[in-house]
Description:
Layout: H1 2-10, H2 12-31, H3 37-72, H4 90-143, H5 149-170, E1 181-185, H6 186-196, H7 198-203, E2 207-210, E3 216-220, H8 221-237, E4 243-249, E5 252-257, H9 277-283, H10 290-301, E6 304-310, E7 314-320
Parallel strand pairs: 2-4
Antiparallel strand pairs: 1-3, 4-5, 5-7, 6-7
Helix pairs in contact: 4-5, 6-8, 8-10
GO molecular function: phosphoprotein phosphatase activity; phosphorelay sensor kinase activity
Membrane topology: Multi-pass membrane protein
Subcellular location: Cell membrane
Amino acid sequence: MKLLKSFFYERRVIYGMYFFFWVLIYLTFYLYEYNFGPFWDSWLFTMFLLIVYSIVSFYRAFRKQKKLELLATKDLQLSNLIFLPKADTLSEKNYQEVLRLVLEKKNQQQDELQQNQKNMLDDFGLWLHQIKTPVAALDLLIQLGQIEPRRMKNEVFKINEYLQMILNYMRQNLDQADLVFQQLSIEKIIKSVVKKYATFFSQKNLSLQLGNLEGQVYSDQKWLIFILEQVIFNAIKYTEDGTISIAFSENQLIIKDTGMGIRAEDLPRVFEKGYTGMNGREQQRASGLGLYLSQEAAGKLGCHLYLESQVKKGTKVTIVFPEEISAFE
């Protein structure tokens, strides 16, 4: 009954015009005193056609409604559009095309979400592999009864660093609202980062050479510190009994070490997510996230990271800051 009422309501203009038209004809015949025989014959014929039209149209509307009800019971997917009834009008055709485009966009977004989730799980696997090293070291010290506060503190420090890394990884899709640009003293920033790793310099007999650090840059303090921590900690990690030097000149901050260096074939991929190179695979202490996240953060800050290295001769990382401050104002 509801469908029948809807059917007649949607076609009320057709039926209204039909009866209005025949009322006018009736009045014409009446006023001119014509014979009503032809009038009734014509009216009965057109009424028959109207009834046939109504039956056929109602049947098609009934079938269309059933298809739509069937479609409503299914998960709305692009493949289910085959259940849509055939469009009878241009408007219906346009509506179906809009629906198809919406579903295509939905599928694309779902695919991207699934891929992002897969990538995140893979990256968490890399990070868990990295954080297991200091955890295992702590466990071994406890099992052996070697309660050495200094060594235990170092391992706890590493765990904290890896936790900070994963937190920054979770925030890697930061937008401009997360950035607070301001004038920063390079010397102040560098000394705060170096102080954080002072214990490791002492433990590994590393010497630190601070060159010219006078100057300021226009950047975000939190993310700049994160980049410097990753670069300097890598220098410490892969340098044994050597030197790490830091200097700033002409909007370029240069951090050099005399560590094991990186193979030439690994250099083009050091900023790729998850890529550890030969050094990381041999020492089992790299996740391949540090330099990747640093490069991502540098891009947000308008900086560029460049890395040069030779095996057994060390590595040089150059951070190039934007020359024009006005670009961020």
